Amino acid sequence: MAEIKMNLPSMGESIFECTILNWLVKEGDTVAVDDMVLEVATDKIDTEIGSSHAGKIVKFLIKPGEVAAIGKPYCIIESDGEAIHEETAAEELEENISEIEAQISKPKGKTASDKFFSPLVLSIAKKEGISKSALGQIDGSGMHGRVTKDDILAYVKKGNKGNTFKLQKEEFTAGEDTVIEMDRLRMMISDRMISSKRTAAHVASFHETDMTPIVRWRENNKDAFFKKYGEKITFTPILIEAVAKAIRHFPMINIQVDVPRIIKKGDINIGMAVALPDGNLIVPVIHHADQYDLADLAKKVNDLASRARNNKLRPDELMGGTYTISNIGMFGNLAGTPIIMQPQVAIMAFGKIAKRASVIETPEGDTIGIRQKMVISHSYDHRVVDGSLGGLFVKQVSDNLEHFDTHRVI
Hints:
By secondary structure, the chain is α+β, with helices and mostly antiparallel strands. The chain is about 25% helix and about 25% strand.
């Protein structure tokens, strides 16, 4: 038997640390592989960690309430596997991460300052202007009465908001300047966006697409689609289908850079940006997106979007993306230039579908008609994606949409 350090697993490409919530086992307990042993929280999801080895838990290395880097050892287990003696890179990173004071979740009856709140809950509270004392009055549905994301959103929905500045639409009030501290998630987003701009040479290509056939097809089939599959058919799965098909034609858009190497990815895993109720953004990934038919793709899109907004995603559903899309048309935007999600090399934004007067070519000559048009924006890394590839790819996506089979059987 050997003593092995089990490390915190990756929980998504944009997650570098987590907060320990609760141990689900005790020191001395025997566990099997994949038995849930630890509950953690990140800025995007709360999740449980499964044991990577079978054996007896010897010692906990992290306490509830502590912030730990991904990759850091969290416990020692006695197992038949080989012992790990070398210091991991995550342990080196640990020196640069300040730990918060341990706050152990306990049953109700404690003051607000004694209770533990996950980073996600604190982020929502700060944005909504909910004080720490007010947080302590919320009835939590989590383990030991812990306040969950759903709890605080329900509290906000009832109108229990503070008076601090919020990102949503509000009336301007003249007066003194207001200083707003950036929360931890906003700081992380800032760092990653700046890092991506520094890493990748961002350029963009645009293409206007005639979505009229798709708009008509969806309008004519949405009720039958829902009746048959129990799912709403939105534009998003249609857009993802078009992108996946285009990647098959231009696989060099489905790459990653590891200087001085270019890694051509073997799978087409498409991330889709989802806006959360608290204003933040999360990007769940549809793995093997090219292998789904439209009905299954619609189910997958709806499921991921729903669970993303309810903090129910698994860590593996945030990992492995090879290309990302963002449907900015949902916010009424015509076009945009999104920032690439590293280590990918491109990202596509789909604008608002709007009626426009357009020239229509007919056998009798050109005429003017009303068409449903959409602008597609394609940002790509000019270090490895030339203008010809970037432009041809967005045109291929547009062609796939304009030649959508409107006679397909749902």
